[in-house]
Each structure stands twice: as structure tokens, then as C-alpha cells.
Amino acid sequence: MSEAVLYETRGQIVVITLNRPDKRNVVNLAMRDGVLAAWHRFEADSSARVAILTAAGDKAFCAGRDLSEAASGHGHGFIPILRDEISVSKPVIGAINGAALGGGCFLALSCDLCVAAEHASFALTEARVGRAPIYAFWLNGAIPQKAALEMAMTGNPVSARRAGELGLVNHVVPADRLMEKAMALADDLCAAAPLAVAATKAMMYETATLPPKAAMAAALARFQPVFESEDALEGIRAFREKRAPNWKGR
Predict the structure, then answer these.
(1) Which tens digits make up the pLDDT trace of 164-179?
(2) Alpha-carbon radius of gyration of the chain
């Protein structure tokens, strides 16, 4: 990776760190390229099960796009937000160490699971600089509409505690326990069968807007290979033998 993005492997867990703390980790071209390269590397590594996306420093997770490069010709899509600019089949945990602003807010919220430090905050600041929070539609159905409208139209920040109440984040912890909690959550994901985890992630997003009958059909289609896998048999054997399963991912 580049100096703007750090990539560290800890067993089956990968930690990807935005590394421009002196600039509040705003996304410039080097960071954009570094994050995209990190996701490609993680996805291609069969030994990597879970990724944690975090940032250096304790003031900001990401303050959005580096507006000093705004004239570079990149418009929507500059910030490498998951499920938009790039797709990753394996689970990603956001470890939010400070303010997540503008595109940085959705860089955080696009992670599958999210752990936030108590002092972290989330804000869609685009309207305050004459831009538009295009990803705000993701909030539909995820949080109450009035809360989504206030975030998107005013740019007012939401505290980590309030984000937890709304369901935008899974856990809120003291700053010195942020990575500890994120790693514990990653360990829990690694303890589960990889095929089941990947299929569950895909199914949840695929069926989010489907009516129940279509959602059930899509879920059955997504899970059929899981039911027929070696890991499914191994899980039953391990349960009967009262031991930890040996997942093979097939």
C-alpha cells in the first residue's frame, strides 16, 4: 500500500488504516488508490477472513474528500465507498476513531458492522458546502425518516451514542478499547463458517428491498451451496463431538 493507507495482516484478520491524520484523513488521490488496492488485496487473499477499516489519530476517521483536489475531474464516486465503487464479499468492520464527515460518513457506514469510539461523530456535511449527500438514500428504512432528513439537510453531527441508538453502529466503546472490540468482533466472525458468513452478507443486501416471497426465493438460492458444502457437514460433526469446527471454506 501507499503511505496514505496502511495494510496489516493479523492472522485471518486484515487491518486497513487511513493514514493522513494531520489532514483529518481526508481522501486524496493517493488515499483513494490505496484503499481500492487494499480491498482488491483483501478480496484476493483466501487466508483473509475479515477486514477492519480504521484511521490514524484520534480526531477524525475521515473528513470526506480532499477539496483541494476537487478540480481534478473526479466527481461522484471519488471516495471508494463499499457496495458502490467496489464490492467485497467478505465481512468488513468499521472501527470509527473520530469524526466521520460527508463522504467519510458513508465510508464508515458502508462497512457491514461498525464499532465507534465514544467521542466519534457522524455528519453528512455536503449541503453546507453546496454539494449533495447522494448516499443519504441508504438511510431509508435503516433509521427513522425524520432522523435521516435532519442528518442529510442540516449537516448536524450525530454523536456515537445517538448513532448507536439509531442503529447506525453496532457498538460504542471508550476510545482505548476501540480496536480491542473490533478485533473481538472479527474473531467472532472468523469462528463462523466462511461460506455461511459470505452468503449471509450477500443475502441481506440482495433482499433488502424485495417483497417477502421474492426475498425467500433469493435467500434459498444464495444458501443452497452452503447447505451442500463440506463445512455444513463439518459443523454438525464438530457440534456432536463437542469441538471447534475446522472450516475449509468449501
Answers:
(1) 999 999 999 999 999 9
(2) 19
Residue ranges of the chain assigned to CATH 3.90.226.10: 5-190
Burial 150-188 (b: 16+ CB within 10 A, else e): ebbeebebbebeebbebebbbbbbeeeebbebbbebbee
The predicted-structure confidence for 6-42, as pLDDT tens digits, reads as follows 999 999 999 999 999 999 999 999 999 999 999 999 9
Nearest to 7 by CA among 69, 71, 54: 54
Question: Which amino acid is residue 104, in one-letter code?
Answer: G
Statement: 193-241 belongs to CATH 1.10.12: yes
The cell for 102 is: 460527508
* Residue 210: other Cβ atoms inside 10 A: 13
